[in-house]
Write a structure and sequence with these properties.
The chain is an alpha/beta fold. It contains six helices and eight strands. Bound molecules: iron/sulfur cluster.
Length: about 220
């Protein structure tokens, strides 16, 4: 069964998600430690710890492997105009990536936003390129930095410590100024917006930033 979630931030725009970190191979450094951006991950705190929030994410890990999953996702998106993949978790398996590509191809009426760190793995590059070539898809490769550092032409998003530290040429997410809500902004889905900076939020992320400053 298709399990869709909604988060208060996204103006009711729906998501398909997995459990954070368990499905995020790109969250780790070579030594097995978490990259900075994932050390403060919002999806491991607050509401995300509740069983009713975890359950659909755990079920989705099994569910996508069904033969009918692509057909069922296309049906589930009949009335959506925007869709966010992975409010939590990542596209950890190549089989899942190929199925998501098919869903994107068969739902041209939907603007898809897919944030990911799977670009770190060469076997995902072809499928990510095919996704990004679609007019209705914006794939954003996430930078690991929490200090606004990113690679031009590669990354599509980065965390900044505060809203006043925004690298040049980068669009600042304004949700922080709008009660934590998108409030009509759709920049993340927009191919014309190359890189978005998200101001850090949450106790866990602020602690990571304090530690980086002290280092
Ligand atoms: S940049 Fe716009 S669409 Fe993206 S999260 Fe921020 S407010 Fe929402």
């Amino acid at each position: 069964m298709i399990r869709i979630s909604t988060t208060s931030k996204l103006d009711g725009i729906r998501s398909w998600s997995l459990q954070a970190l368990d499905t995020c191979p790109g969250s780790k450094n070579a030594d097995g430690s978490l990259v900075d951006a994932c050390s403060g991950c919002y999806a491991t705190t607050g509401n995300y710890r509740y069983p009713n929030v975890k359950a659909p994410r755990l079920e989705n890990r099994e569910d996508w492997q069904r033969l009918e999953w692509v057909d069922d996702m296309v049906k589930a998106l009949q009335n959506d105009r925007y869709f966010r993949w992975f409010d939590s978790g990542d596209m950890y398996a190549i089989g899942l990536a190929q199925k998501i590509l098919e869903v994107m191809q068969r739902t041209p009426w939907v603007s898809h936003w897919l944030p990911t760190r799977m670009h770190k793995f060469p076997k995902f590059r072809d499928v990510l390129t095919s996704m990004q070539a679609l007019d209705n898809v914006m794939v954003r490769f996430s930078s690991d930095s929490v200090r606004g550092e990113f690679v031009q032409g590669l990354h599509g998003s980065v965390i900044v410590p505060t809203p006043d530290i925004v690298p040049s040429g980068v669009s600042l997410c304004q949700a922080y100024a709008n009660g934590g809500k998108c409030s009509g902004c759709r920049a993340c889905y927009d191919k014309a917006v190359a890189v978005i900076a998200y101001p850090a939020h949450g106790k866990k992320m602020n602690k990571v930033i304090m530690l980086k400053k002290a280092a």
